[in-house]
Amino acid sequence: MTTGLPETIRDRFPLLEHAVYTNSCSQGALSDEVRAAYAQYLTDWDDKGAPWDLWVERAESTRARFARLLNATPDEIAVTTSVSAGVSSLLSGLRHPEGRNKIVISDFEFPTIGQITHAQELMGRKVEHVAAAPDATIPLERLAEAIDDETGLVCITYVSFRNGTKTDVKEVIRRAHEVGALVLVDAFQAVGAVPIDVRDLDVDFVAGGTLKYLLASAGLAFLYCRADLLPEITPTVTGWFADEDIFAMDIDDYSPSPTARKFESGTPPIPNIYAGIAGMDLMHEIGIEATERHVAGLTEQLVTGLDRIGATMVTPRDPNQRGPMIAVATTDEGAMVAALREDNILTSPRDGNVRLSFHCYNSEEDIERVIAGLEKHSDLLVR
Length: 383
Ligand SMILES: Cc1ncc(COP(=O)(O)O)c(C=O)c1O
What we know:
Layout lengths: L19 E2 L10 H17 L3 H19 L6 E4 L2 H11 L8 E5 L4 H9 L6 E5 L9 H7 L4 E7 L11 H10 L3 E5 L11 H4 L3 E5 L11 E5 L44 H17 L1 H22 L15 E5 L3 H10 L2 E2 L1 E3 L2 E5 L6 H13 L7
Parallel strand pairs: 1-10, 3-4, 3-5, 5-6, 6-7
Antiparallel strand pairs: 2-8, 7-8, 9-12, 11-12
Helix pairs in contact: 1-8, 2-8, 3-4, 9-11
This protein binds pyridoxal-5'-phosphate.
């Protein structure tokens, strides 16, 4: 684990030399290590031609790294190209017991979760939404009301991509299990920034990817499925890398892997796998717990600064209800993001707000620059 964040690691991210980067909720900054991993992919291609054995080995190392990250076993991990691909495969095979046709989702779900669950309506399921309260939380009591004995599956996002709100997913899982429902946690905005232990959470399924706080690329993701649930799920969204014996080249039947590999599809995203290994190894070295502590300090500093300049924070003030991202209300989020970009402060817009997200490499000076930038464009702030 690296101590002394962020000084010990900033020079590994060239982007930080010329920008204040507070957009890790969209994509983590590129490190020298990840750049070198892409170069290595090309070198191996040049040196070895079509090294399928190496590719399969790299894919398996990725699986092992995702497992380590979540405190899961490799057999519980599918290596996918996106959250969407893994969740689509999962839902295609999840049989809801008789009378449990309802899927509960929160209004903080990423569009892909809404779309994939509503697609299940074509299979006779119904979807119930739990709305956000004015304080930008999904109230646990409303979730508890919606999760009843007709519920087969609950989809809950850990940290909302809309406003940075962190939901007490452990409590949601406890409630769901009490009535016999399963839970899928979308952890994309949390993984790498918040330690995740599937055993401690007692969660059934978790999806996430490497693009944001795992410091790697688009096109690499995972789906965790608890081991004892695997035999019950037979996906119809599939492909040859989901087969029991990938290289049997068998076209006579469908015999999916007994492990979570059954949720995979075609040729693994090899370039992204090289990058993903480098990004995850870097995050492992830096330490996710150390990062969480460091970022908690930065977000506190930001909250104090927002109060000082009279800005309106949308994310809950309770530190337990937020992760690495804080959303600030604007009168025109596109204009605010563009104005900050002029000052070399990179952010992203969503739902009327500017999203400010922090990672291991952000510094106290970055926070002061962001506060000064928001104050400079205070005509675009909601007060
Ligand atoms: C919470 C969350 N879920 C899912 C996704 C999208 O996942 P994918 O494009 O891998 O399907 C994102 C991407 O921003 C996200 O923030």
